[in-house]
């Protein structure tokens, strides 16, 4: 029983994170006129206190000023169309798309969807959630997604309607089709075993697509050595921490593209080596469902979630891959967006951002997300699991009904930010404070733990009451 309790505790404490606060809740079904006062996303004073500092705060980000941020142009959102896997595409589909005129859905120059009711705002937020930031480049390229061999090599799942929900087709110029990707949906969409799609869940697109791309020869006429150097420079912008000695990312400079591809191939779907993590220290993609109830955002609780505007700020910072304001922050003088110098802010005109309306709609949409039906039955095993959960002391950190205490564990040498002392409950070996994982929802995601080191759950624990705010049950 002792070993079972320990194993159970390990699995439960390795459940999904993305910790945050409890903003006000408004009826999502209201059809009455909805005219919200949209908060200002980039407020210098609020941004300065947004993030939990590192135990060694020298590397904590110093973000750009509001004056700089609002000089960044808003990227237009174009109407997009599904991408189908080989053998599933309707006859003449691509030819019909090439005949379409470009259609701007939302920009800051007069184009916007209907925003009369709260339901309209949530629907518009889904458009932002699925809007790509990059086009016909990177790991999701048209020639890959039209090749059956790519799916076999990468293990990329296909939805039951034949679509690939991690990319879309976009017409920005009549007659020209571009594949758009790197949206919120790219990382936060899960294809379930039956082919259904759960938006906002821990994503099921892994790093195998990146590995596949790294192994491909450069385009004709491009010097291979120069192409490799460009790739390594991009990895440096993602992972360097030069304020540490030695920089853990310095080893990347001695790796070939094949070495990098091999490292990417070790990362399972649902885990990603995003910026501020590392190729050898990837993090689990968090579940966004239920995020409105959590006080901290990011995989390890890096950012405070005090109200809806903090979620807007998080989206503004983490847009795309180094396409958001986070890449413009200075980490002890290191600015990721400034390749190859990494020392000077780029011209804001060369960057892009979401509008205030888009960010507010996106946050409302994320708040509206609901979990899928739980496939597990409440039986005798579940009852025994509940007793183990309680006897092992799991509720001390994973407190019902949210199954998180919404508090921080502390790294040695870390001092909580002012006003957050009451949120800290214990010590941790980590390099900064870390949020307490929310155990609800692990039935719809895998792998588990902050680093995705627990790949699958083996027993079922479905003792969460039906009245739980998240409506989800635990699986291990």
Concise overview:
The chain is of the alpha+beta class.
Provide structural commentary.
The model is unreliable at 1-28, 424-433 and 457-476 (pLDDT under 50). The radius of gyration is 22 Å and the shape is globular. With 476 residues, it is of the alpha+beta class. It has a four-stranded antiparallel β-sheet with strand order 2-5-6-4. A three-stranded mixed β-sheet has the order 14-13-15, with no helix packed on it. A two-stranded antiparallel ribbon has the order 1-3. The chain has helices at residues 2-13, 44-48, 66-69, 93-98, 118-130, 142-145, 148-154, 184-187, 208-214, 224-239, 257-265, 308-317, 356-368, 380-391, and strands at 77-78, 80-84, 104-106, 134-135, 163-173, 176-181, 189-191, 197-199, 271-272, 283-284, 296-297, 303-304, 408-410, 424-427, 434-435. Helices cover 26% and strands 11% of the residues. It has a domain at 77-284.
Return the average pLDDT rounded to an integer.
83
How many β-strand stretches? 15
Number of continuous helical runs? 14
Specify the overall morphology.
globular
Strand order of the largest sheet: 2-5-6-4
Give Rg in angstroms: 22 Å
H/E element order? HHHEEHEHEHHEEHEEHHHEEEEHHHEEE
- The percentage of residues in β strands lies in 5-15%
Low-pLDDT parts are: 1-28, 424-433, 457-476
| Largest β-sheet summary | 4 strands, antiparallel
Distance between the termini: 16 Å
